[in-house]
């Protein structure tokens, strides 16, 4: 297939490369000319604007967005709304709020433009491991662009989960669960870190838990990886950002009367991390960097700021 890719950040660039390697033709645009040049050198077709992208694609067109949630995504959808044609489809693969997806789809439908919301997980590892895709949209529209989903996802890693909005809703809950898992690992390793009388080797423990333990997981694999380089780990400040999905998950739990105490506490612990530099928060910051390439604050820079 030939498809447009808007946004060449940590995930967008890797998705473009994975699609190219699977034989798809990708037309790319990003505000960064360097990112466009790099993607072009790897087999994509770079363009200078969204308008040029639309001209380079053949109807019915498909344009995939991998942009930060909020204004960057919504402004781009509004721009595409004015230049795409009936039958074209916009796929939002970022971490957008599912309410926005439903509103966008309703508005675009008046012009005959289709919309798919695709929750995307995989972080910086997706290029080689594949991306887990949670897709929301009309069955016939999803089917039309399914070759793209199958190229991006590993075996059994793609599902059409429901109508528009369902993809981002499922990804929102996925990220809420992620908050809880990260917090549980962080608290456990923080407790062992405090057990001075045993002089525990945390990297050794993370490694042994990876084999046969009931708490083994990919996040544990990444914990072991993060703890393997102690000098690098020690640079990390225990300051954990949140990118929105955790807050949305708690909002929905409250609105629907569903008890989600683990997710809620995990979110509040992230707020607390910004006031105290705890070992548990260092673990979470390190893991977010490992799976998503999220930046972390370094101890030395924090000291300079103070």
Count the helices. How many?
16
Shape: globular
Encode the helix/strand succession as letters: EHEHEHEHEHEHEHHEHHHHHHHH
For the biggest β-sheet, the strand order reads: 3-2-1-4-5-6-7-8
Largest sheet entry: 8 strands, mixed
Helix content: 55-70%
Strand content: 5-15%
Could you give the count of β-strands?
A: 8
Structural class: alpha/beta
Overall mean pLDDT stands at: 93
Which segments are poorly predicted (pLDDT under 50) over 5 or more consecutive residues? 300-306
Estimated radius of gyration: 21 Å
Helix and strand topology:
Layout: E1 2-6, H1 10-21, E2 25-29, H2 33-41, E3 45-46, H3 50-56, E4 62-65, H4 71-83, E5 89-92, H5 98-109, E6 114-121, H6 126-129, E7 132-136, H7 139-144, H8 146-152, E8 158-162, H9 166-194, H10 202-209, H11 218-228, H12 230-234, H13 245-256, H14 261-273, H15 279-292, H16 299-305
Parallel strand pairs: 1-2, 1-4, 2-3, 4-5, 5-6, 7-8
Antiparallel strand pairs: 6-7
Explain how this protein is built.
With 306 residues, this protein is of the alpha/beta class. Helices cover 55% and strands 12% of the residues. The chain has helices at 10-21, 33-41, 50-56, 71-83, 98-109, 126-129, 139-144, 146-152, 166-194, 202-209, 218-228, 230-234, 245-256, 261-273, 279-292, 299-305; strands spanning 2-6, 25-29, 45-46, 62-65, 89-92, 114-121, 132-136, 158-162. The radius of gyration is 21 Å and the shape is globular.
